[in-house]
Amino acid sequence: MQRVEARAVMLEATHAVEIEPGVFLPPDHYKGTEWRTGLETMSGDIRWTALQYKIELTADQFASMGAPDVTKNSISEEIDVTKFVRSGELTVT
Asked: Global pTM?
């Protein structure tokens, strides 16, 4: 059986972080989600994946950061920022 654990977190960028080529997340605090998945083993233990992180930005926020091709039909964009947390460019506060 697969399980998912998630919790709300705040992520802090102390400097501009290039989250995609040409798209810069300005210094600020961002609401995010910390999550991981687990798979139950035959013995009943759960093996968890490493923690992962994502933030959700409105389409307007994302476009103002330099994102190309943000359509008017898009309400929000969910961005996987796990590698930036792991590298220390974003911190969980």
From this structure: 0.83
